[in-house]
Specification:
14% strand; globular; 154 residues
């Protein structure tokens, strides 16, 4: 597993000041993917992003639709207004997982654009909020993601 430590998050200094920086974050993610592929050319890769990471994943997939075999988007922010446009040429399976009770990134926005993205599906979790992987339903979410990855990575 490889992970991007976004500017202003984790150990990376700086501050994410506007949505325009998402394209730069996407380039960082694609650079990390290049490193991973160089180290392990025998492997296939999936992309998963949560919240800001989901926005970053959408931008990365928009720039390079075939960079990975499949993708999982978790808690995609409603500020990602161009997702359907960015993913209009999508050629890989995408699973969006979202909590129905997500107050930081309401699921309604994802419901609006997901239908316009080829080979994309939405799995909603009734008892889930924004941080699905750390909530009481995390095992259900993890199982859904694992099944999706099993179906598309083997």
């Amino acid at each position: 597993m490889w992970a991007v430590d976004h500017v202003g998050h984790g150990l990376t200094e700086g501050e994410l000041t506007d949505a325009a920086q998402i394209r730069g974050l996407a380039q960082n993610a694609l650079q990390l993917l290049d490193i991973a592929e160089a180290e392990h050319p025998e492997l296939s890769f999936a992309l998963m992003g949560h919240s800001l990471g989901a926005a970053t994943a959408i931008a990365a997939l928009g720039a390079h639709p075939q960079a990975v075999r499949c993708a999982v988007l978790c808690g995609t922010p409603k500020s990602v207004t161009g997702a359907a446009d960015d993913l209009a040429d999508n050629v890989i399976p995408i699973l969006a997982v979202h909590g129905v009770d997500d107050r930081l990134a309401p699921v309604d926005a994802v419901r609006e654009w997901i239908g316009g993205v080829p080979d994309a599906s939405l799995r909603e979790f009734e008892d889930g909020g924004h941080d699905l992987l750390h909530e009481k339903i995390h095992l259900q979410v993890t199982l859904s993601v694992a099944e999706f990855l099993d179906d598309h990575m083997s």
